[in-house]
């Protein structure tokens, strides 16, 4: 076979090729990071279309993020154009697509809106009178978990999540209420399609006829509900191929279990397993470093993984004073590399929690390093943005109580909780339409409340008028049909580029949005606040309107807009992909499946990473996250660990992460001030010794131009001193020797530690 293979198949190794040619029984590809699992899927899509003559529409490939889905489509299309017609989606986007077409079988109309976590909390709080918000949130979380595990309110196993009767009751009430409102939460995007397929054999048959081949990437993170969905979609003639890596399972908190992948062969009898053991992504020391940490987990399969790329620069571990220095460290690395021709896009800065991006953003902005934040929810979490989105959501679904309560009295116009309750009750006894209910009871309200309600209803009417299509004719095509969302601006420009002027409507759907926001008084409200606080909320609303302008001014356009926002922000947390040469700022979780030439893993401290005081299984999951992060790097890998960090509004001393102690010191170069006792084993071998070779006489000026021999300097802790030596260490830049007036001598790395040394003049 091989000698006549087309080049795209020639590019595979024998195991990968076997996986591409495989047919018949279910197939599990179980292999480590960077071994070409995703490549096998994309090649297989093209192969089935080209060589086996399969109709592309009969292929369904599921991945973890929309970005990954787009990349997959692109890679497959490069081999064969027709791959564009295959369906490549995330589980959730597939679920939304399915429900838009078949939702009526579960009493959903096609105009449903997808609730995010905040919306579900808001809805729940209406069912849990006098319950503290933290507890409501906790309950919302448990309901989401229950759905991940495919548990209904009457399932005996629900006890595993919460054994109290009260929880069952709340979950049941919540489901009943959601059914009445006619919207869905994220869990429903998976759970409801399963129920529909189970209860409607004819529909199930149609889907099994349609999708003859189903493939799943990152299978280790599929949860139980997603597994059930797969099972329902697979008929006797469906070919199923899943790929994954047990060492990269990082979503236990979303109901994924490592054992899902390990038990796959039991659940799909006859499964064949193919292992891939060559890593094409990373140089050998990077792989070794990553493996040395995950090796500390118990109960692994323990796969072989050999680097095809061989030797290279060993990973660097930098001990830094605090997070400001950490940001400087990253910036300087990136700037220096840039001077020798390395583009920004080769770099990714990884962190454990979203909030950590702020410091890097600040530093990069000030030094004009272009960057993109992947995974930040911030923009859509802003109050004014949520208000505008709630207005839009209520416009398409007037049974949406959460949206209604959020905006009917915003800004305050005399519609208090009692009036809201009155309207909600009125609606409950009819068809649930809150706007109609409000209209019916206005005569009973106080003059103030009546005028408030009328303003709100008037705004809705004007917003509706700005939609030129008829509400009754929601087309079946929805946002979920378009694999590519229309190009959007980044939220950075939204956050920082706002102006103080009133909102301006542009094209398309933005007219509706701007009309609504203006008429409801939200724009005016924020405009006056902006003037005082300067927080550019109008700028954010304007950016939202800019985003809406590329959608048509119709109900369909509005649904597309809302759906894209929901899926984008909570499922995959992608951002703009259009700018090319930018540094990527990204949480560790979001790096799944991606690769970058150079990676800096930051905040490798106890309490930050591993997060909080994780133990047992949770600690193992953090370790797998470490493995995922480190194996994203192709050529260079850096770790940074700070001695101090601002957390919860205070500056706290930090301990290096347990993972740094576990790292194989043979493949680690340590720079900066290692905490006492850290360097024990072989690390000394690779640790630079700044004192060696400083001649005191040779260079007069450091290569970065910052320091001259004989300069007087001041240090916060050690007082005054003078520079007595400069040495260029190559990779780490200039090493500066200082003799303090106290007699103390110290070295520092100009690139990374300058901020504590102030030059106050020269000796001569
Ligand atoms: P992860 O577990 O991180 O998702 P993966 O197993 O899906 O990784 P891929 O992303 O498919 O790995 O491949 C990793 C890199 O190796 C990619 O750049 C890919 O193009 C390259 N690659 C895969 N197989 C080969 C091969 N046979 N020859 C050359 N390069 C390859
Ligand atoms: Mg992959």
Features:
globular; binds adenosine-5'-triphosphate; 6-stranded parallel sheet; Rossmann fold; 16% strand; 764 residues; binds magnesium ion; alpha/beta; 5 domains; 43% helix
What does this 3D model show about the protein?
The chain has 764 residues and is an alpha/beta fold. The chain folds into 5 domains: 7-99 and 191-276, Rossmann fold; 115-183; 285-377 and 575-672, Rossmann fold (3-Layer(aba) Sandwich); 380-398 and 451-567, no CATH class; 693-764, Roll (SH3 type barrels). The chain is 43% helix and 16% strand. It has 31 helices and 26 strands. The strands form 7 sheets. Strands 13-14-12-15-18-11-21 form a 7-stranded parallel β-sheet. The protein has a 6-stranded parallel β-sheet with strand order 3-2-6-7-1-8. The radius of gyration is 29 Å and the shape is globular. It starts with 6 loop residues before the first helix and ends with a strand. The relative contact order is 0.11. Bound molecules: adenosine-5'-triphosphate and magnesium ion. Magnesium ion binds at residues 37-38, 217, 593.
């Amino acid at each position: 076979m091989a000698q006549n293979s087309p080049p795209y198949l020639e590019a595979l190794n024998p195991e990968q090729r076997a996986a591409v040619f495989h047919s018949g029984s279910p197939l599990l590809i179980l292999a480590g990071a960077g071994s070409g699992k995703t490549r096998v899927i994309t090649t297989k899509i093209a192969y089935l279309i080209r060589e086996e003559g399969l109709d592309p529409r009969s292929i369904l490939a599921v991945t973890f993020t929309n970005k990954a889905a787009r990349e997959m489509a692109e890679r497959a299309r490069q081999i064969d154009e027709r791959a564009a017609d295959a369906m490549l989606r995330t589980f959730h986007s597939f679920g939304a697509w399915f429900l838009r077409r078949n939702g009526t079988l579960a009493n959903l109309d096609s105009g449903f809106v997808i609730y995010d976590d905040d919306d579900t909390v808001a809805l729940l709080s209406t069912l849990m009178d006098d319950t503290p918000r933290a507890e409501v949130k906790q309950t919302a979380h448990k309901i989401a978990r229950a759905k991940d595990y495919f548990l209904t309110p009457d399932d005996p196993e629900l006890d595993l999540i919460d054994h109290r009767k009260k929880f069952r009751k709340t979950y049941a009430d919540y489901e009943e209420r959601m059914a009445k409102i006619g919207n869905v939460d994220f869990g429903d995007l998976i759970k409801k399609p399963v129920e529909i397929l189970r209860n409607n054999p004819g529909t199930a048959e149609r889907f099994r006829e349609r999708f003859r081949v189903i493939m799943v990437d990152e299978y280790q993170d599929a949860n139980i509900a997603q597994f059930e969905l797969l099972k329902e979609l697979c008929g006797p003639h469906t070919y199923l191929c899943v790929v994954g890596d047990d060492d990269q399972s990082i979503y236990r908190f979303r109901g994924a279990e490592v054992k899902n992948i390990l038990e796959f062969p039991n659940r799909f009898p006859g499964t064949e397993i193919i292992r891939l053991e060559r890593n094409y992504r990373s140089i050998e020391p990077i792989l070794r470093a990553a493996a040395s940490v995950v090796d500390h987990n118990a109960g692994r399969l323990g796969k072989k993984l050999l680097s095809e790329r061989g030797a290279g620069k060993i990973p660097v571990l930098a001990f830094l004073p605090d997070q400001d220095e950490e940001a400087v460290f990253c910036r300087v690395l990136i700037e220096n590399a840039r001077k020798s021709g390395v583009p920004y896009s080769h770099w990714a800065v990884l962190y454990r929690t979203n909030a950590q991006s702020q410091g890097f953003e600040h530093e990069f902005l000030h030094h004009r390093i272009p960057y993109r934040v992947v995974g930040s929810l911030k923009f859509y979490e802003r109050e004014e943005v949520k208000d505008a989105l709630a207005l839009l959501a209520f416009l398409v679904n007037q049974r949406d109580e959460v949206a209604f309560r959020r905006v009917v009295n915003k800004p305050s116009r005399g519609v208090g909780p009692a009036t809201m309750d009155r309207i909600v009750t009125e609606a409950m006894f009819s068809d649930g339409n809150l706007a109609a209910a409000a209209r019916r009871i206005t005569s009973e309200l106080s003059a103030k409340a009546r005028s408030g309600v009328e303003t709100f209803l008037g705004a809705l009417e004007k917003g509706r008028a700005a939609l030129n299509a008829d509400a009754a004719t929601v087309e079946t095509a929805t946002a979920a049909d378009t694999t590519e969302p229309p190009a959007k601006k980044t939220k950075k420009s939204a956050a920082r580029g706002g102006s103080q002027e009133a909102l301006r409507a542009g094209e398309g759907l933005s007219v509706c949005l701007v009309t609504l926001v203006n008429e409801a008084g939200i724009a005016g409200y924020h405009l006056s606040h902006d003037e005082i606080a300067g927080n550019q909320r109008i700028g954010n609303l304007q950016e939202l309107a800019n985003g809406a302008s590329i959608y048509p001014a119709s109900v369909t356009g509005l649904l597309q807009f809302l759906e894209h926002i929901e899926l984008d922000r909570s499922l995959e947390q992608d951002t703009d992909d259009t700018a090319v040469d930018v540094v990527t700022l990204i949480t560790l979780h979001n790096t799944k499946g991606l690769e970058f030439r150079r990676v800096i893993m930051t905040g490798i401290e106890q309490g930050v990473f591993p997060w909080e005081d994780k133990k047992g299984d949770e600690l193992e999951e953090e370790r797998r996250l470490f493995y995922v992060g480190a194996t994203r790097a192709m050529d260079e890998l850096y770790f940074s660990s700070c001695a101090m960090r601002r957390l919860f509004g205070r500056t706290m001393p930090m301990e290096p992460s347990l993972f740094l102690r576990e790292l194989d010191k043979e493949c680690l170069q340590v720079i900066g001030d290692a905490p006492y006792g850290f360097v024990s084993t072989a690390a000394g071998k690779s640790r630079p010794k700044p004192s060696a070779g400083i001649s005191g006489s040779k260079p007069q000026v450091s290569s970065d131009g910052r320091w001259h021999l004989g300069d007087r300097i001041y240090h916060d802790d050690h007082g005054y001193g003078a520079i007595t030596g400069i040495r260029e260490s190559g990779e780490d830049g200039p090493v500066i020797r200082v003799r303090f007036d106290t007699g103390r001598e110290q070295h520092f790395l100009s690139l990374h530690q300058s901020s504590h040394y102030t030059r106050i003049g020269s000796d001569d």
